[in-house]
Amino acid sequence: MVSKFISNKLRKELSTGNKFSKPIIKVAIVSITISMLVMLISISVVRGFQREIKNKVVNFSSHIQITSGGTNFSLETSPIHISKTYMNEVRNIAGVSHIQTFATKAGILQSNADTVVYDTETKVNRDIEGIIFKGLNTDFDWNFIETKLIEGKTFRAQKTEANDSILISNYLKKRLRLSVNDKIRGYFFNGKKPIVKSFVISGIYETGLEEFDNQFVFADIQHIQKLNSWGISTSLFLELSPKNEHVRITANSVGGNEYYMYQFQDDVLSFQKSISFCANKDTVIRVITNDYAMNTVTLKSEPVSIPDTAWLQLKVNSTNGECVTATGEFDYESINDSTRVYKGSNGTITTILRTTGGSQSEFIGGYEIYIQDFDKLDEMEKEISFVTDPFQKMSKVTDMESEIFGWLNVLDTNAVIIIVLMIMVAVINIAALLLVIIVEKISFIGIMKSFGSQDYVVQKVFINLGGYILGRGIIFGNSLAFLIIWLQSMFGFIKLPQEKYYLSEVPLGFEWTEFIIINFITICLALFILFITSLFIANIKPVKAIKFN
After folding, report:
1. pLDDT, tens digit, for every residue of 144-176?
2. Per-residue DSSP letter, 95
């Protein structure tokens, strides 16, 4: 009964306080509130930054890239033969979400003419910008780019003819003064001569990642395949000049190393690119073309590229049943891109060209692989390596963009330092507050102890008071943090300069696991310090305490 009376009396005395203790308690609650707010917002900002930047980098360049083996320091990918079997094997690995093919090539974009009129003359200025063309195939996942599109629309790669539409960044748009639907020239070098190609701007994108936006232009992968002369493209045409009443069919091939050999019908391979015959009946001419190179070990010519096949169907209409010929050259009329009608002196020949589109479509620059869980990147790399050609190069996004991920890892250190400092502030405030109140109430404590109150009873009251202050500070701090995070996620009122931070808004999210850990550690440390501080009461002597002023 005495202990209970003393405990209630002491609790009432502490709760009543005076003009000195009440402001101290309020300051302590505010300090703990601010500390909790700073800790929770800090970890939310760090995790938000890491998540958003990782998503941008990964969606732009994938989690894992598979490219040709060997050392390649250029901006262009080396060709590898596309393997549907390999792609299916990767898709069947648990944890893989998507695989797509790509290719890259360096080039130059030229702006539209800018006419400047001076006093005596007129000059036409053009700006140029070095860029990297990223070729996209029909398997490309457009979801990320579509969310970053600010003008125009995306395009789709085609299996037949190459799509001339391209996507450029907002940076290139401003730098070269371009707009959607503008025609623009691209300049390339294939190792032998410069090549000029025209494109149409279908859309403008902006990711906020300066390293990517300043360089990359998205285009149909067929442009990269043709510009790099990957594979062979063959067509057949009828020569205008007959010889000895025989027509000549000639193969025209591009790509590869241009050291071609031809196989007409069932004949043997040869360097002869033409075949002659009497055109007196309908027929189909087929040619298989491949390029060869000398093997330095066997000293024999071996195929380099995948062969290409073309067919030319001839429909012959002879007025006298003999070979259709011409006294000089055939007159011809083009019906469409694949069909021509040749008029001779004794009939007509209609040719219909059929091609595969070229074997360059069988070559790509590499594969981009996306996984479901970024935290399992190393584990997935090992899984994928089991089905990947050992002579091909496998690169993780953390290695390809090591500078960005290094910067993101530094943010973890910053967050830990801030959290440790804020926990120390909260704990020190609690300890200081308790000591101040103990000193303020030391005379009353001495009186209570002289009436027989035990130390643990007085300690419990002071610990409860400290816990009450701690609890209010934690509740207020968490409430304010959750409110700010919710408002930012809904309205994005806290802005950032995107050119410096890659993001236009501060990314805040509810990181529940880390929030719980921070609250748990703060409460445990604070209660421990409260207990240690309360031990000071055991050393208070009633006689000295009563006389203390």
Report:
1. 999 999 999 999 888 777 889 999 999 899 888
2. T
